[in-house]
Design a protein that fits this description.
The chain has helices spanning 52-87, 93-126; strands spanning 6-14, 17-21, 29-32, 39-40, 45-49, 128-130, 135-140, 153-159, 163-170, 182-187, 190-204, 209-215, 227-232, 240-243, 248-250, 253-258, 267-270, 272-277, 280-285. The chain is an alpha+beta fold. Strands 1-9-12-11-10-13 form a 6-stranded antiparallel β-barrel. A 4-stranded antiparallel beta sheet has the order 2-8-7-4, with no helix packed on it. Strands 3-5-6 form a 3-stranded antiparallel beta sheet. The longest helix has 36 residues, at 52-87. It starts with 5 loop residues before the first strand and ends in a 27-residue tail after the last strand.
């Protein structure tokens, strides 16, 4: 059985990098609680903005709500009084309609003030930036004293701290790769066991390479931007192997010398070779399982030479 790895290389990158921006503009940064490389949990406070102006707006709107509530209560009492008079035939119907209109306007002003309060409450919540998920802080842009703009990038977060290797693989090798396959990642002298997460659905037309996303385990020691090599291990398949020392080249083509049972003369056999692995060579065409080949001294032989097999 021969398990030949599919080899690719590429750069380490975040599984998902979240770009967190300021939702409210015009506020000064009071506090930045994280630095690059910090691990955070979902809900942790990352950045605090100066919310004094928003607090003042909220107080002003609360006063407007109280004023609108008083006006509405008075308008409703006037409507009740006018309705009583109109029912008894004392007051005109037109006065009742006017007071109902005033009450409706007061109710609308109260609803508008309450809506403004909700808006300010939302902006106040946005003045404190929270981590949307667990992760690793990869970049911090905002600093204390800066004034935010709406949508301005504040920091970047590697979601769940997960990294992966985007290994580039020849397109013809992609058919034998599937999610979950084990991968041996090499970076210098370091070796890390990982697995295939996904295969990109497109091929780069310039170099005919596809991308295999290899999920790296926690604590791999690799950092975004590092360059690494991936050996994607496929399922073993049956193969005929010969020692690499038995292969000779005649007229530029690989061959071996075979010695059939009971024979004393060697025969030159042309081969089609495949993968090389640990001093062995795969023979795709030219040899069958169990045939004897000359291992030592093959380079001195020619087709039909008389030989004597040396003792072990």
């Amino acid at each position: 059985p021969l398990a030949v790895p599919v080899v690719g290389d590429g750069s380490v990158a975040p599984w998902q990098e979240l770009v967190l921006g300021a939702e409210v503009g015009g506020l000064r940064v009071l506090e930045v609680r994280v630095e690059e490389g910090d691990q955070v949990r979902a809900g942790d406070v990352l950045v605090r903005l100066d919310d004094a102006l928003l607090l003042a707006q909220r107080a002003q709107i609360e006063a407007s709500i109280n004023e609108a509530q008083v006006a509405l209560d008075f308008a409703q009492s006037e409507v009740a009084r006018a309705r009583t008079l109109a029912t008894g035939g004392i007051g005109p119907r037109q006065v009742l309609e006017q007071r109902e209109s005033v009450a409706a306007q007061a109710e609308a002003r109260l609803a508008a003030a309450i809506a403004r309060r909700e808006e300010v409450a939302a902006r106040l919540a946005q003045a404190t930036m929270l981590a949307p998920t667990d992760g690793l802080v990869s970049r911090v842009v905002l600093r204390i004293g800066a004034v935010t703009g709406a949508g301005q990038e504040a920091l970047r977060l590697v979601r769940d701290g997960r990294l992966e290797l985007n290994a580039r693989v020849p397109e013809l090798e992609l058919a034998g790769i599937a999610p979950g396959q084990p991968v041996r990642v090499r970076h210098g002298g370091r070796e890390i066991m990982a697995e295939v997460r996904a295969i990109a659905p497109t091929i780069t037309p310039e170099n005919r390479l596809g991308t295999v996303h290899v999920a790296l385990p926690p604590g791999s020691g690799l950092l975004p931007g590092m360059f690494a090599r991936a050996e994607i291990m496929g399922p073993p398949r049956p193969a005929v192997l010969v020692p690499a020392a038995a292969v000779v080249f005649r007229d530029g083509a690989p061959a071996v010398f075979t010695l059939a049972p009971g024979e004393e003369r060697v025969r030159l056999r042309r081969l089609t070779l495949g993968q090389r692995l640990d001093g062995m060579v795969e023979v795709r065409e030219g040899l069958a399982e169990g045939e004897r080949v000359v291992l030592s001294g093959a380079g001195f032989l020619a087709d039909g030479d008389l030989v004597r097999v040396a003792a072990p």
